[in-house]
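Input structure tokens:
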């Protein structure tokens, strides 16, 4: 096989090419970086990279496929994830985020032009028809924690608002997962189990079970030291953290010295 061909080389090292009417999937031999390449077939299932193509070659290749405008969301395992930027394009049925391959020099919420080769969306370029101020506003809003319902900027489209909502809630869920892992791990080291928690500005109110009983305490976010132990500690609450508090609670119950405060007992000031 003497023919050369241009193709996107993606993570996993496989390329697709049509040779004499047959669509073949070839494995790239040797080391490689994902990107565009000019390759040569070595057999019916292997190919090697010869060189990098020129920009005009890549443009000519992409021009063979239909274009679609997408909104970049976040970077995924195989590249960027994106949602549809315009409603009413009946050529594509897109439900939820889709991967966009080989996108470089881009940022979240930018509108891009991609090409669909029948199996994958390939990045072509940033859509220069859309003002970069829109994506910049959304990135800044995300950084400052503005909720999707509070977004306000003239010309924001429904698709851009939906893209922001997806990313915002994904980040909130990831944050909550990290908090739960941290609290579960801390309590687990003291043979207690997390039931639930409420997040405040600088603290968490944590409900946990130990020895079949439920207890609630408020701890600081940064180091999990106790703000309010939920039991009377004679003003010594801040000497303990969440892990050590579990032992104190268990010992107090065992010795009959458990005095709840707050919602289920004495007021904390008393």
């Amino acid at each position: 096989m003497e023919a050369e061909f241009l193709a996107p080389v993606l993570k996993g090292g496989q390329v697709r090419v049509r040779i004499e009417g047959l669509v073949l999937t070839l494995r790239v031999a040797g080391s490689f970086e994902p990107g565009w390449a000019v390759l040569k077939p070595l057999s019916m299932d292997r190919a090697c990279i010869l060189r990098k193509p020129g920009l005009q070659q890549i443009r000519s290749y992409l021009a063979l496929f239909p274009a679609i405008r997408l909104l970049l969301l976040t970077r995924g395992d195989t590249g960027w994830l994106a949602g549809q930027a315009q409603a009413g394009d009946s050529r594509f049925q897109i439900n939820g985020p889709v991967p966009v391959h080989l996108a470089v020099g881009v940022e979240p919420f930018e509108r891009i032009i991609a090409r669909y080769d029948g199996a994958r969306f390939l990045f072509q370029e940033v859509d220069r028809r859309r003002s970069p101020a829109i994506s910049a506003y959304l990135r800044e809003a995300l950084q400052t924690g503005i909720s999707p319902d509070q977004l306000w900027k003239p010309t924001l489209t429904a698709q851009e608002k939906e893209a922001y909502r997806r990313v915002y809630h994904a980040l909130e869920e990831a944050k909550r997962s990290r908090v739960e892992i941290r609290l579960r791990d801390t309590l687990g080291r003291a043979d207690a189990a997390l039931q639930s928690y409420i997040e405040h500005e600088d603290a968490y109110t944590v409900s946990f079970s130990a020895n079949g009983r439920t207890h609630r305490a408020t701890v600081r976010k940064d180091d999990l030291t106790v703000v309010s132990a939920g039991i009377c500690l004679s003003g010594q609450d801040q000497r303990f953290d969440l892990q050590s508090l579990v032992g104190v609670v268990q010992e107090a119950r065992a010795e009959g010295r458990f005095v709840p405060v707050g919602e289920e007992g004495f007021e904390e000031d008393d």
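Residues 158-188 form the longest helix (31 residues). Residues 139 and 214 are 41 Å apart (CA to CA).
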